[in-house]
Design a protein that fits this description.
It is built from 9 helices and 5 strands. The N and C termini lie far apart (48 Å). The chain has a 5-stranded antiparallel β-sheet with strand order 3-2-1-4-5, covered by helices on one side. It folds into 3 domains: 64 residues, OB fold (Dihydrolipoamide Acetyltransferase, E2P) (Beta Barrel); 60 residues, 5' to 3' exonuclease, C-terminal subdomain (DNA polymerase, domain 1), CATH 1.10.150.20; 57 residues, Helicase, Ruva Protein, domain 3 (Orthogonal Bundle). The protein is of the alpha+beta class and 200 residues long.
Length: 200
């Protein structure tokens, strides 16, 4: 219904941004990451939005990027995850980081977010793993080199590329790995190696 807002920031706090468009102030609930991305009061800003209508309230949620809104939609589609919990997750993890957590099955990382218990974290990973894999597949598999080892290496390659690593960076760290390893283990090892390379 309301896809986006562009206007002047008239009020802001860590979980709320009010954008004035045509004389009307739209109060958008936001993640702390979007709040940080929104300019100061009186500056121009644009937010992608999602309107939710429930029995007891109508609320507008704002996002700095389409990717963040997409993750919000995925999260709120999971049984037991409401908009507030989805925003809490997005406050702690960027969309790329969230994609990695889901792709690698690292549900424990999600329990760091306040209000997300072990069972809920497992449900998020279980229900979204295929969706994340499909989006990664559509965007990255065509660009990924063909490994003789097969599926696990391809999955790991795609996950690393969706996180922003180049094809050559991902291929460089995955080339020496045992193709029999699960893709989640390949991703963990690759990130450790890439982290060391960055520090070096």
């Amino acid at each position: 219904m309301i896809d986006s807002l562009r206007g002047s920031v008239i009020y802001k706090e860590p979980s709320l941004a009010v954008i004035e468009c045509g004389g009307v102030g739209y109060a958008c609930r936001v993640s702390t990451q979007t709040a940080a991305a929104v300019g100061a009061v009186d500056e121009q800003a644009m937010l992608f939005t999602r309107l939710t209508v429930r029995e007891d309230e109508i609320a507008l949620y704002g996002f700095a990027t389409r990717a963040e809104r997409s993750v919000f939609d995925q999260l709120t589609g999971v049984s037991g995850v409401g908009p507030k919990m989805a925003l809490a997750v997005l406050s702690d993890f960027t969309p790329d980081r969230f994609a990695l957590i889901v792709a690698s099955g690292d549900h424990k990382a999600l329990t760091k977010t306040k209000g997300v218990g072990g069972k809920t974290a497992q449900r998020i990973v279980l229900e979204l793993k295929d969706k994340v894999a499909k989006s990664v597949s559509a965007e990255s598999f065509s660009a990924a080199p063909v490994f003789a080892g097969g599926g696990n290496l391809e999955e790991a390659m795609a996950a690393l590329q969706v996180l922003g690593y180049s094809q050559s960076e991902a291929a460089g760290v995955l080339a020496g790995m045992d193709p029999a390893l699960p893709s989640s283990e390949m991703i963990r090892q690759a990130l450790m190696l890439l982290g060391k390379n960055l520090l070096g």
